[in-house]
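User: Could you walk me through two proteins back to back? I'd like the raw sequence and the structure tokens for each, with a short line separating them so I can tell where one ends and the next begins.

Assistant: Of course. Protein one, sequence then structure:
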Amino acid sequence: MASQRDIKSKIGSVKNIQKITRAMEMVSAARLRRAEQRIEQLRPYADGIRKMTRRASEAAESIPHLPVLVEHEQVNNVGLLLVTSDRGLAGAFNSQIIRAGITRSREIDADGPSVQWYATGRRGVSSLQFRGNELAASYTGFTDRPVYADARHIAHDLTAAYVDGELDRVEIIYNHYISPISQTVSHETLLPLQQADILGEEGEQEEEQQSEASAHQRALWIYEPDPEEILARLVPDYVEISIYRALLESTASEHGARMTAMRSASDNASDLIEQYTLEMNRQRQAEITQEIMEVVAGAEGLR
């Protein structure tokens, strides 16, 4: 049985860890508020880009003959972009993206095409490399606060690979932020445009509710210049803004998951301190009882 000194040492260690987890919880909460503000500001713009791209593609009589808009006849290589974080201690935030990516890669392999891996965040990069997967490109060092230039860099690499024929389809998997305790894994197709998810959730609901009216509204749209030219200009922006939105969603999800995980760790530390304190009190009581019995035995021996 552990001595009182050993138990006190354990209690001190747990208290120190609890201080760290509480501090990390507070930091994550502060960063989460800023990330939520960035998401709220971006979502309307991202949804607007998606709706404009969809309407322009429907209004265009023919898809412009641009390499980025050409749908490849055969799908031999699929680019899979996993959006993870640079740091851990965020519960299942990174592991669920890795699991979703591995599951999707198996589905793609079963259909015939091969997978080329792309990943953001050191956790995703190291996890894929540990599993023996070779990465076509990796992006790290900015997951705490991504900027639009990061999304543009990633979009340029993916678009260039698609135009050069290295990729025939581009997909992205990331955590969609709902609340600090709820993040869902989202899977989207970025390229080709003909298969892309160019409507957000709000746009899909709007289309379901106003399917008949939307057809009439599209007929009233006037395009200047032609829809084909507008579409050619929108597609690069669409890819960039989709990746940027995924990065921001992932950042907010990361801070929310870490805040929740650290709060749970602090609560578990409190429970552990109570258990150790109870064990220490029992140990002290046992030692006092043993000393009393020894005194009594000694007194009886002197009679």
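----
Protein two, same layout:
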Amino acid sequence: MADVSDGMDAVGLQDVGLMDARIAPLWRDVETFSHRVCGVAVTVRYVPTNRRASRVNAEEFKKFEGQWYRDLSPEPFIGLLREGSVVVIDGHEDGDTGTIGSNNIMLWKTRGAVGVVTSGAARDTDEIIKEKIPLYFRGPGRGIRPGRNEVESVNRPVTVGGVLVRPGDVVVADGDGRDRCPARAC
């Protein structure tokens, strides 16, 4: 990442694309550096929702949860993932909703994603570390998505860590930081 920043400096793009340092890696591999990410951005924006489950019992909530993921707020960007994709999520700085969990991040990996960068939170972090999926995020979250946030847009410009990221931008991340290189500058 420092080398990418040096290269951006050399072409007159000082401080362009450098994300807030609070977007940090969940884990680091200092042997093979498998936590590093370099790929092409597929963007998604999650926003707080006003659709809530009414007071329900556990069985009714399970139905609401299934409907949420299936109909109300699925993950339509999955079909856009290719080998080398980086899922870039504007999490609306939601610090306590686990927009990313072990189930969906493993699915994204099987579809070709090489990592995830988000301004939001993630849950199931022990499992994500065990699977060695690179994740750069604001911090852990506890709640699941249903009734908390919903997909607002896919493959539109998003803001993550104070940086505008467009679909197709090159995203690199390592222990030193996260950066976005506009496709026209790389």
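Residues 2-181 form a domain with the Glucose Oxidase; domain 1 fold (CATH 3.50.30.40).

Let me know if you want the two compared in more detail.
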